[in-house]
Design a protein that fits this description.
By secondary structure, this protein is an alpha+beta fold. The chain has two domains: 219 residues, Alpha-Beta Complex (DNA primase, PRIM domain); 170 residues, no CATH class. It is built from 15 helices and eleven strands. The strands form three sheets. A five-stranded antiparallel sheet has the order 7-4-6-5-9. The two termini are 47 Å apart. The relative contact order is 0.11.
């Protein structure tokens, strides 16, 4: 890491100040007691690098969750004030007012606003001059309400980047964490005041005051915000994609549950085994299930019917090969991200492993039955979106470019 310390802090004291800030604040602001550590110097923070929150800051840049995805709630506003977003008023001499100074001014105004509304906050600063403002609440709040308030504040203070609050899987670097440019994120307030802010979090009256204060910005944010119309995929702690659902996962419908338990399906809705099992996976993904939970239901025998839909005597481990791949396909369609190969976990092959004395895949594809199937339909996937009628999913599953490998 390059040597770069936080402004106005003696370099030799930075590490100690960072450890003190981390111990005093981070455990109280993290949505869950986990941390994601970057392995590439702070460029990415993949979920597969998540681990329990340590007592001291890691030596590499890291982030903590903003929300708790389980109940879909959060206990803080995490405001990221970025110098790249700062806009200095026209007519002001930019040689005298830098972007860092503008960020500092807006962060101070946010603090003054909260103080006027009867609240308190925690503030920190990074080596390049970016700042965070954390507003901790005594009770959990719905994540979408917290997101909307963050968007409203971003309309009033342009240097605020609402991205950390815009997704249920949002992450932010906490006080005391290593910065990608070197140095550490350090508190820009006395340590005792930061401790007081986490020991005495803001009550419901501060939240209500914020809603009243930001009424105009909330209306504006609501008129331009279409986040609720999209389905956002997240990554679990093992790096597997899933689609979070408010509250918790929901059970499958009666028809899909029967397929999963018995392996029997309605032939008028699902032409074959592959369509039936994909319908079960789409239903589970759309109801907030994770792949690990689907696998647990299969392993326990509760969903032995789904396991049977993968069974093939010539390939004993067919379920292990296809289930992760098909799960990613289903999550990709629900979240409208068709190119699942861009996901860092999409490194599984859809083809079975080669076996001795077995015809190649190419020779199998040009068999008589395969040739008839290929000539009967164009080699393209259906353009239907997940969540539409099950027959649309079946049509997609039946396209030769997909089915010929199943």
């Amino acid at each position: 890491m390059p040597t770069c310390d936080t402004p106005c802090i003696t370099p030799g004291l930075s590490r100690g100040a960072a450890e003190a800030a981390w111990r005093a604040v981070t455990a109280s602001i993290a949505g869950t007691p986990h941390v994601r550590v970057s392995r590439d110097g702070g460029r990415t923070f993949p979920a597969r690098h998540a681990r329990p929150l340590p007592a001291d800051p890691p030596g590499q840049p890291c982030t903590v969750p903003v929300y708790d995805p389980g109940p879909a709630t959060g206990r803080m506003l995490a405001l990221d004030l970025d110098p790249a977003r700062a806009r200095v008023d026209q007519g002001v001499d930019t040689t005298l007012v830098s972007a860092q100074a503008e960020v500092e001014r807006q962060a101070a105004e946010v603090g003054q606003l909260l103080e006027r509304l009867g609240g308190r906050c925690i503030t920190d600063v990074s080596p390049p001059g970016g700042r965070h403002v954390f507003v901790v609440f005594a009770s959990p709040l719905p994540w979408r309400e917290l997101r909307d308030v963050a968007l409203a504040l971003a309309l009033r203070y342009p240097s605020i980047d609402p991205a950390p609050m815009s997704s249920l899987g949002g992450q932010i670097s906490p006080p005391g964490s290593r910065h990608k440019s070197g140095g550490w994120r350090l508190l820009s307030m006395p340590l005792e005041d930061a401790r007081a802010a986490v020991e005495h979090p803001n009550g419901p009256e501060v939240w209500n005051n914020l809603l009243t204060e930001l009424a105009a910005e909330l209306r504006e944010a609501e008129s331009v915000n279409h986040v609720d119309n999209l389905v956002n995929a997240e990554f679990d702690d093992t790096g597997v994609p899933w689609v979070p659902r408010l509250g918790s996962r929901a059970p499958l419908g009666a028809e899909l549950e029967q397929i999963a338990r018995t392996g029997r399906w309605n032939g008028s809705r699902y032409p074959g085994r592959s369509e039936a099992r994909m319908a079960v996976l789409v239903g589970a993904a759309g109801r907030g299930w994770r792949l690990a939970e689907v696998r647990a239901a299969v392993d326990s025998g509760a969903w032995k019917g789904l396991a049977g839909l993968y069974r093939r005597t010539s390939e004993p481990r067919r379920l292990d090969r296809l289930l992760p791949l098909e799960w990613r396909k289903c999550v990709g369609r629900i979240s409208r991200e068709e190119n699942v190969r861009r996901w860092h976990t999409s490194d599984l092959s859809s083809r079975p492993p080669p076996q001795a004395n077995r015809p190649s895949q190419r020779s199998t594809d040009i068999s008589a039955s395969g040739l008839r199937r290929s000539s009967a339909r164009p080699r393209t996937r259906s353009g239907s979106r997940a969540g539409e009628a099950a027959l649309s999913l079946s049509a997609w599953c039946c396209s030769p470019s997909v089915r010929r490998r199943w």
